[in-house]
Amino acid sequence: MKNAIKVVVLFFLASNLCFSEGGSVLTHVSLDQATQHVLSIANNKVLGATTEILEGKEVHIIKVLGADGWIKFYKIDAQTGVLIS
Questions:
Q1: Whether residue 75 has pLDDT greater than 50
Q2: Which of 43, 61, 72, 75 has the CB geometry, 3.0–4.6 Å to 67, for a possible disulfide?
């Protein structure tokens, strides 16, 4: 189930990357975009969201309360939009 959630988040993040007029990919995902994608994949309630530097990379960390009552943390690479964990 966790892998399915990761795949869905990754799909939504990758599908909403913007393209410039020259056709090159803009590779930055804002904290708001990452948060909206996490909200869109399941019945989650966002408890907090922040951006931190982890191992030299800018990472969005989104804390959610899942429908199952468990608190979960999603880490999303801010440059690529890839779900880290």
A1: yes
A2: 43
